[in-house]
Design goal:
The protein has 511 residues and is of the alpha+beta class. Helix 2 packs parallel to helix 18.
Length: 511
């Protein structure tokens, strides 16, 4: 890996385009380096993971709305030869839609339950959000499974490398600003585009996907699932424009009125962004991790600890016996999903599901009482409004601990941690102290996820949604991903039996 220094330049500076971060990203994307076997297998895992969580969300209102928007944009017959359209989760595999709208609908389905993969460093991200737009373009343009693997490897690489170096949330910019460029780069790799075209697409994608972080603050709305889908859709459209010879604002990162100067650390900023050298394999996906539980990633380890403690110490579920609980954790966990966010909605039993999955006090209270975490039961309104849960929930606060903050930002995977220390004060004067560094499913956790776990996650979330034959067919196609021919990529979707989606309130829009 090479560290690339990125800083603001005035318009009059002698600043070569080859030195721009967007050009360097495009150079990585245009490099035809082979994908390592272990990276390929992890890509297969994440394709399965995305489909699993999308399957479980098919009836949820944001997904229904996004799917209805895509269904209003079917691929028409007057298309150039070879333009096939893309599939949408929940519709029949032989139906085809405009690729940007398929990316949109599938991106919402993947993101809705907050249940797929993550990478955390200077910025946090869900790099699996790259898969829907890259897959949609692969289907539309008749690319092979091997092409798709190469595109996904690039998408993960660029998003992870940006997240390692450039903090967005520190300036209240939403993390999808790294996703637009990474998805555009991944599509560029998929299509075998030249560096110039990818460069223009990366710039356009970044320019159109910078937005405030209010989408993850206060009472969190349904836009939380739409934000990455929007970035993916913009990436598809940016590539389309760039392929037609259209240019983008530049230097998009380093210009004196561009992203860094205006939205991030300002004119004096200096970032060091790691990117692979030419000929160096793209392996960043191996530094990412998926979720066993449907909640913000910083909650994963806390759920595992709370489940265990709840089983071992039943008195923890009784608010009459608990005076208070403090979760000592990283700055990020404290400020984003903890009491340090100063969001009263994080303690509101009538808050939206999107808010509850970003409330570590709520999550710990339920996991302590139930000894489990479920993507539906744990968020049900009757569960959130239970009197003893509300009482316990409001006894739980977070506090930043410098050591856990340091470990959160560590670049050494052996000490990087996303958990913390729990301190419980009981009403009888006794205390309990315990801690956890990483989730059980983390590569260094008690039960690291492997292929069998991804398959089981898919089968579990597909139960009651897909029939056994459909589950088996999808898994067969996914596990053959690198060998799939163009006409087989349509198998990488899910279609429930007739009647499963009947009776849903499908909202009407402009079309």
């Amino acid at each position: 890996m090479r560290l690339n220094e990125v800083q603001v330049h005035r318009s009059g500076d002698d600043f070569a385009r080859d030195d721009e971060l967007a050009w360097k990203i495009a150079t990585v994307a245009a490099d035809p380096v082979a994908v390592d076997a272990d990276v390929t297998q992890m890509i297969v895992n994440r394709v399965i993971d995305n489909a699993a969580v999308a399957t479980a969300s098919l009836r949820r209102p944001p997904v229904v709305a996004a799917r209805s928007q895509a269904e209003a944009r079917p691929l028409t017959g007057d298309r150039p030869e070879g333009k096939r359209g893309a599939t949408v989760f929940g519709t029949a595999a032989d139906r085809r839609f405009e690729p940007e709208w398929a990316a949109w609908a599938n991106g919402v389905a993947v993101r809705e339950l907050d249940f797929h993969d993550t990478f955390l460093s200077a910025e946090y991200s869900h790099p699996g959000d790259n898969i829907p737009p890259i897959l949609a373009v692969a289907q539309h343009t008749g690319r092979s499974g091997a092409d798709l693997v190469r595109g996904i490897a690039t998408g993960y690489e660029i998003q992870v490398d940006l997240a390692r170096a450039i903090s967005l949330h520190q300036h209240t910019i939403d993390h999808v600003a790294h996703l637009g460029p990474s998805a555009a780069a991944g599509i560029g790799t998929l299509l075998g585009l030249d560096t110039e075209t990818i460069y223009q697409a990366v710039g356009q994608a970044l320019h159109t996907t910078t937005a405030t972080r209010q989408s993850r603050k206060g009472l969190i709305s349904t836009w939380k699932a739409y934000a990455p889908a929007f970035a993916g859709k913009q990436a598809v459209e940016a590539v389309d424009r760039a392929m037609r010879g259209q240019t983008s604002p530049s230097p998009i990162y380093e210009g004196e009125d561009a992203v860094i100067a205006t939205l991030l650390d300002g004119p004096g900023a200096l970032y060091r962004v790691p990117l692979p050298e030419v000929g160096e394999p793209k392996r960043a996906i191996l530094d990412t991790f998926t979720k066993e539980h449907s909640a913000e990633y910083q909650a994963q380890a806390w759920i595992d600890l709370a489940r265990r403690l709840g089983r071992e110490r039943p008195e923890l579920s009784d608010p009459e016996r608990v005076e208070g609980i403090v979760l000592h954790t990283s700055h990020h966990t404290h400020k984003v999903i903890g009491s340090g966010a100063n969001d009263p909605q994080k303690y509101d039993p009538r808050a939206s599901r999107e808010t509850l999955d970003h409330s570590i006090p709520y999550i710990v209270a339920v996991a302590l009482q139930d000894g489990e975490w479920h993507h539906e039961r744990s968020y049900a309104p009757e569960r959130a409004q239970r009197a003893d849960t509300v009482a316990l929930w409001r006894r739980i606060t977070t506090a930043e601990d410098p050591e856990w903050t340091r470990r959160y930002h560590s670049l050494d995977p052996r000490e990087q941690a996303f958990g913390g220390r729990i301190e419980v004060r009981f009403t009888d004067g006794t205390t309990l102290v315990d801690e956890i560094a990483v989730a059980d499913a983390h590569p260094l956790g008690a039960r690291p996820f492997g292929r069998a776990d991804y398959v089981e996650k898919f089968r579990t979330l597909a139960e009651g949604v897909l029939d056994d034959a459909s589950v088996d067919a999808f898994l067969d196609a996914a596990e053959r991903l690198p060998d799939l021919q163009a006409d087989e990529l349509a198998a990488l979707t899910v279609t429930p039996p007739a009647g499963y989606l009947d009776g849903l309130a499908v909202p009407q829009g402009l079309l």
